[in-house]
Amino acid sequence: MNKVYHTLKTIFLLGWSIFVVFPFLWALTTSFKDANAITSGATYIPWVDFEPSSQGWTSLFTTGSQGINIIGPFIDSAVVTLIASLVSLILGTLAAYGLSRFEYRLGFVKNSDITFFFISQRIMPPIVLAIPFFLMLKELGALDTIFGLVLVYIALLLPIAVWVMTDFFSGIPKELDEMAMTDGCSPIGAFFRVILPNSVPGLVVAGMFCLIFGWNDFFFAFTLTFTETQLLPVSIVSLNSSVTPWWSLSAFALISVAPLACVAVIVERYMSRGTMSGAIR
Amino acid sequence: MAKIVLENLGHSYLADPKGEHDFALKPVNLTWQDGKTYALLGPSGCGKTTMLNIISGLVAPSHGRLLFDGKDVTNIPTSERNIAQVFQFPVIYSTKTVRQNLAFPLECRGVSPSRIRQRVAEVATLLDLDYALDMPARKLSADQKQLISLGRGLVREDVSAILLDEPLTVIDPQMKFMLRRKLREINRQTGVTMILVTHDQSEAMSFADEIVVMKDGLLQQSGTPEELFSRPQNDFVGYFIGSPPMNMINLDVRQGTLATDALSLTQPSPSESNALLYQLGIRPEHISLVDQTAENVGVGTIKKIEHLGVDGIVTLELAANVVIKAKTRKHTAMSVGTTMGINVCQDDALLYLDGRLAT
Amino acid sequence: MLQIDHLTTADAKVTLDDVSFVFEAGKIYTILGRTGAGKTELLRALMGLNPLTVGTVKLDEEDITERPIRARNMSLVYQQFINYPHLSVLDNVAFPLRRQGKDKAEAHALAGQMLTTVGLGEFLQRRPAQLSGGQQQRVALARAMVKQSRILMLDEPLANLDYKLREQLREEFPRLVADNVESVILYTTTEPREAMELGNTMIVMHDGRVIASGAPADLFAHPPTKDTASVISDPPISFISGFVRDNCLYFSEGHLAPSEGLLLPADGPVTIALRPDAIEPDGAFNAQIGLSEFSGSQTIIHLDFDFGRAIMMVDGIEAFTAGNDISVSIRSEHIMLFAPDGGNITLRNNQNG
User: Fold this and answer.
1) pLDDT at position A271
2) Which domains are delineated in chain B?
3) Which among B178, B307, B327 has CB closest to C196?
């Protein structure tokens, strides 16, 4: 009975893994193919099925008619995403702590309304936001700059951070802050000495969300930049010409997935060490 | 209604238990009669909750069988066992009225509306909640909410047993007393078997016809409250049942008898015993404190008097630095530092060999 | 010395209503009351955690009402076992000392000593989550005590523990706090027995007010109001509405109550309170046995009289079958009388009892 169950489980998981990994395998082989190899049907084994070519990869690091150099956009993307995520996380965590611990009242506006206000920023479709953002950045002279994009991304990521962290903080008993204060901490001291060290799981989740949303955004990067600044998702578009360069696209896809995959692996390691789970009962 | 039999029933959370210590519940044989009240008693982690979960069907036991009225239900799912449960915290549908709460389990089973009305009215009368039927359930006090949780089990006519998982924890002491009485009355009037899980020995004693004492997954003793109180089978039961715990006084072997300097009570030395530890167990309730006379079995100086209301606990130091506790109602007339005579009935002094009651 | 005057709160679900009291250093005060009586609110108001609408808190004649929490020199042990999850047991207890500015070595030394006192000397490097409930509460107690703060408050510290652990910690409690001779110790509980066992002074709260205070034994023997009698009696006290006519006490028409040694008020209705020790088997009153419960060496019998319900406690294990009739006597020296509106006692037994 148990044996059958284990065998079935193994088979199922194996099948599922193949299902998940397959697109990556496909992208990997495709990135080493040339035009001929791609049109000749589905093949997977290099040197046997097809003759590998490094064209897909080299085209991403050369400028000119053969391709684009993605090193610039990669760095821009990384800088924008990291700065925006970090700022959002810091501001969002502080805002969330305030919202979960203190009572605010501005006329009829209370804590829950403020929290909703933050989240409501994500209700509107991006196209509605694009025009005001465009006009505002133009006023600031920040169109087509990294600074401008960082501003916009903070506006987009902050609600996520506030939302995740408010939820997380409300799960930490208030008594913990109170105890820290009776033990001689100021309110802000209680936050840094006691609440923050116990919030690592929440911070990691919020940070992950920020990184994923920021890194993957195409729409705002596309509408708010032209030539000077270009983010990774936008630069891929310029690759497309009369012949779709599947090899370059595949290589590009792998490169853009890589940073997030690295983050995921690190976080997973960290989580399985058990340092985050079970911090708070 | 059902007679519940645990047949060599044990459970290990490990796939392949090696020894005794791998069992969360070491195999037990127990028979619970229909219509009586039972208590599973022990400290946290003793296996009482595992046993309850096996009976309710939330856990499938790794060993043995569970029988309801002779029918093997070991692998039957919870929903088909006709078990009702009341949990530590009241579980009610807070948006519904009391009436809707009570009717819900019947509605789910497709009982006719007229029958539902009748059953709800009957159960409400039983619970003394007639007047509250149309109140929103959330407005009731904690003990009334617990009664509703119980009532949702009682409305079903096919219910075999009601399992109570520490239902009195969140209730104030005086209300606990009343709720306990209510539970007993319901048991008597409906004849439904009730099984209470608790860590509170006084609750178990006053609630149950029979108590199962457990520790570390092992059954320590099962019996009526009187049996557990007057003849605890081992030192753990002596400690766990009764408050304060049983006094244990070490005995020395002296010329074929067992004796102590503290009390002039002796026990014949058991002939075939190689026990390392001989102890005399005496309940604090069985020690009477009197003015000193020649007939006393011992004398002691009062070290502490704890006032608990109607009765009190007196701590005494006897000869050879033996400290014992006595429970009495005459504590208000005593004072710390005075010396009292001690009387103990020979039958109330039990002999323990290495922590087990000598037979 | 801690003095509170007219403490009143408005915000919380349970509010304080004009609470005044003077607490002396070196004594243990147990605050007894049912759930929702305002015990926790009182402690929180003292800490400065709940805002006051009216009232002052004075510590040694100095008004500290407006002082921030961290500067109040108070500590609090919660009912839930609250410790710092990210710190080891040792660092948990050292935490308040470090905030006081002690260096790490000194803080650790003092914390280690305190943990040894509470019996956790072996677990210094564990995280709180790796300890049992009782041990976690010992950590919280150690952290509260190590500061040697002027006011040590414990909010139902044993309520979430197993019965036997509770018994054990209750037994140890006086020894654990013995060093805090400079402190006012406040201990809230819902259990009358716990309040009487631990307190030098017992304070009874009801509906956000202090309704009685005094030495536990005195308060138990002479509760000043019906509510007090009700809150401090476990097993519960039974109230029966009776009346006085022609200098005789009646439970009801045709049921003359024993009144020997009682000074009776003028004719009119009274509330008669019977504790379990006021009733004994055999006598002039007939009752039906509602239920008999076994409790240690005693048997608790619920009685249904024609005029109301009451509880009798009998020493020893005796079989009382529910549904049977029984005759009992009622001892006049254990009867208490209250005004029918539940207000102040109109009269109490003039004898000792």
Assistant:
1) 65
2) 4-239 (3.40.50.300), 243-357 (2.40.50.140)
3) B307
